[in-house]
Amino acid sequence: MLIARQPVFDTEKQAIHAYELLARNSGLSRFSPPTSDYHSWFDIDKAVLELADQLLKGELKLLVNVSEHTLAIEHQFHQWRTLILKLARKHHILVEVTELVTASTLQKRWDSLRSMGVELVMDDFGTKYSTLTRLHDFEWDIVKFECGQTHGYPPSMLEGIDACMKKGIPIIAERIETYNQAISSQILGFNLQQGYFWAKPEIVLHSQLHTQV
């Protein structure tokens, strides 16, 4: 398993705003958040958190993903939550709820997540369960949008951006891979951006944790 960090770039300040920790099986070509068809994503969620403390320097924020499996299974969730609380005592942690977390699981865990005192991030608006309904039903601190489109933005995405603007929720553009995507996203209000255009993921750990996807 490979764990990498990728910066979220502040285009106004021309500086790194935060880092996201990403994980993948060493046999795959891209880093990505947890998928729903892998039974041991809790092991990866936990490994990422255990590494996080070594990577946090200065005042930079750190985004960590949480999977459906970690949230859904009671003992796994409480182990993960304990690690988050320990990190949050010393660092600025943002928990990214992936688009594959189901509505029932999120509803079940929301109060406990909110009580941790960390920022909660809705990932990949418009994908799977990351819907406009989810945006309105929960009190998000940040919402991430995939802005790697080459032929304009779908109406549903523009509606989500507008809803965030009205609520005063900061937004992050993901999958920015070209100059044109960076400029188009900035015009829409995305001052925080993430993607290969700004920086590729930097491998920080090659673990022997056995994974199968």
Question: Could you tell me the strand content as a percent range?
Answer: 15-25%
Approximate helicity band: 25-40%
Count the beta strands.
9
State the name of the first-level CATH class.
Alpha Beta
Summarize the structure.
It contains seven helices and nine strands. The protein is an alpha/beta fold.
Please tell me about this protein's structure.
This protein is α/β, with parallel strands linked by helices. The chain has one domain: EAL domain (TIM Barrel), CATH 3.20.20. Helix content is 35%, strand content 23%. It contains seven helices and nine strands, in the order ββαβααβαβαβαβαββ. It has an eight-stranded mixed beta barrel, surrounded by four helices. The C terminus is likely disordered.
Topology:
Layout: E1 2-10, E2 15-24, H1 41-55, E3 61-66, H2 68-72, H3 74-88, E4 93-97, H4 103-114, E5 119-122, H5 132-137, E6 142-146, H6 155-167, E7 171-174, H7 179-187, E8 192-193, E9 202-206
Helix pairs in contact: 1-3
Could you list some keywords that capture this structure?
213 residues; alpha/beta; EAL domain-containing protein; disordered C terminus; EAL_sf; cyclic-guanylate-specific phosphodiesterase activity; Cyclic-di-GMP_PDE-like; TIM Barrel; globular; 8-stranded mixed barrel; 35% helix; 9 strands
